[in-house]
Amino acid sequence: MTTTLPAELARLGWDRSFAEAFDAVAAPGLVPARVGVEHNHLYRVFTDGGELLAQAAGSLRHAAAGADALPAVGDWVAVRAGAARRATIRAVLPRRSCFARKAAGDPTRRQVVAANVDTVFLVAGLDGDFSPRRVQRYLAAAAESGAAPVVVLNKTDVCDGVRDAVDAIRAVAPRVPLHATSCTAERGLDALAAYLTGGRTVALLGSSGVGKSTIVNRLLGVERQRTRSVRRGDSRGRHTTVHRELLVRPDGGVIIDTPGMRELQLWDTDRALEDVFDDIEALAGDCRFRDCRHRSEPGCAVRGAVAEGRLAASRLAHFQRLDDERAELQARRERLERMAEQRRPGAGRRSRRLPES
After folding, report:
1. Is 53 in a helix, a strand, or coil?
2. How far is residue 126's CA from residue 40's CA, in Å, rounded to a whole number?
3. Among 13, 87, 262, 352, who pairs with 79 as Cys (CB 3.0-4.6 Å)?
4. Contact 60, 73 (CB under 8 A)
5. Predicted confidence (pLDDT) per residue in 92-135, tens digit
6. HEC string of 168-223?
7. H-helix or E-strand containing 79?
8. C-alpha to C-alpha distance for 176 and 40, rounded to whole angstroms
9. What is the pLDDT of residues 68-98, one digit of tens each?
């Protein structure tokens, strides 16, 4: 049984619960490590003895039910070190939280963006491409992940309507912590650093050009991440960060920077709809029909609240868009399951009776 916490691992977020999970898979030669970078099925992992270049063991790849079961940035894993600073990942420890989305090009496959995140900074830029609806979509994804969301409104130095932007976010997320920051003017960054105490892990999510990499550099105290200016026409970025990466902060805490994702496709919106739209869920309890979708059904308490001005029509519209997306994804999964069933040997064939003797 593991009784001590190595100092270097503690800096990476290792704690007693992860140590107990490692004990369940421990074997001679295995050591704990955290995945820092994943690229083309090669991993850079951090151990108590330094960095290693690793690959997933064949048995792990074979046992994985899907790509989301393979190691991802932020995962704690059990590795066996070899020669020349190489290692093999033998197991992935259970995830405490998991930020995932629908994989690009395959809406029925889940892609893990970051694992074991304590807090997720949902970063929005105030320089011309600000969208409360996009922030709300990120909030829905954060609700699925298990990480605590924090909204960061960045680039306040180039916005004359900061108060209006704050009010717009408060209207869709009244209970989510919100911070207004400016990396150029060095405003609001101390409040963000407070989330990184005690070896905690923060992931930054948002569209390209909102300033995630610049925030990372300020929190690290060094120009670690490359930054580029946004396009003047629409304030969109140019994907400075091209892969997810785990960075250890000298003053404590771990940061996961991610490439910009303008259109975040949610994976499983059931929990998101309940958590992010809890006001609608509460109103729905008074609907005439239990399965009311708040469209044209008679006796809908949610549409009644909109008519009376107690619920914003835009909020209900966004709820309905996410609900439609959930239903479409579920229908696709069911179609794929039926197709897979039909392709199985013997499917659809009539059973033959043996002749009676």
Report:
1. strand
2. 34
3. 87
4. no
5. 999 999 887 766 555 556 778 899 999 999 999 998 778 888 88
6. HHHHHCCCCCEEECECCCCECHHHHHHHHHHHCEEEEECCCCCCHHHHHHHHHCCC
7. strand 76-81
8. 36
9. 778 999 999 999 999 999 999 999 999 999 8
